[in-house]
Amino acid sequence: MLVVARRYLYLGTGFGLFWLFWYIFGSPLAQVTGIVSPSESTSVAPPTHSARNATLGFQSILALSTGPSWRTRGLFAAANLTGLSIHIPPQPPIHPDLVTTFETLGSEYIRHPSHGASVAWLAHLDMIKYTIQADLDTALIIEDDADWDVTIRSQMVRVAESVRNLTKTPENETAPYGRDWDVLWIGHCGEYWEDLFETIFYEDPTACPHKYYLGFAQGDMERMPDHQRAVYWSANPVCSFAYALSRDGSRKVIELLGAGQDEAFDVSMMHACSAGKLKCISVVPEVVHQYFPNQKFGVKSMVDLGNGEQAGPDDSEFEHIMGSTENILESARCRALWNKRCLKE
């Protein structure tokens, strides 16, 4: 009898250990609570994996905006759809005399910014100063009418991989994009390219095909492989729809661009990139572009309004009617607001 009892005791103990192990590592409850097996816990995600998080691997995404409007409502609709976390810091007022003075800085032999371009330039500088004051390691700065693809989080993982390859980032570097850059230009209206440029190409079905690409850089695009995206050291990017800054990059931009003396903020930054004063990397085709309200309403840009052009219609007249976005296959704004595609062709 004693031998039989011991057998049942051992058998019961064995079944008990089996069910305990299954409960901890194999049960649905384990999946819900996030308990993982020892073998799973040893696997470490690559640094580029964090480029698909809510801030695309940057410490913060900051939107430059003067306040609530159709721009910000569409921006947050797109952000909610794609799971992005975007912060709009309050924009400090800019004294009119400062704007007037900024327009005239420099010699008579340089191109000066218009009044509206000066207002925009000073606003960008204030935003960059904010990144320094907040001690951000990296920040992605976007304009409030920016638009992007519904797949941007997976897109940015491939961008991060390519940036690391271009900059020859060591494998043990934990920053998703590495650290050997000042400006990462992911949103622009065109960029120059030559086949002698050191370029990282990769297949990307979400890249805008040549037949749909619009803008002054269309000829440069056609020399690149179609249905691919390119990452290379910047040559001539224009428009500041979206650009990331490293900690060092923020300080350099303030030092180099803080006194104006050029046509516009984006042009001045492009000149600093081309001259090698800033280490800049461009992504082509861009992954962020500008959304345009339906053109029949004649909605003006913030720079146009700053230059004194007559204000367009009230938001209520056009906001509910779909506009378009160039060079972005599946607009997050249009999908969020109208559940449609609005690629401008």
Automatic annotation (TrEMBL):
Keyword Membrane carried by entry: yes
Keywords: Membrane, Transmembrane, Transmembrane helix
Chain segments annotated as transmembrane: 7-25
Protein name: Glycosyltransferase family 25 protein
Species, as recorded: Aspergillus caelatus
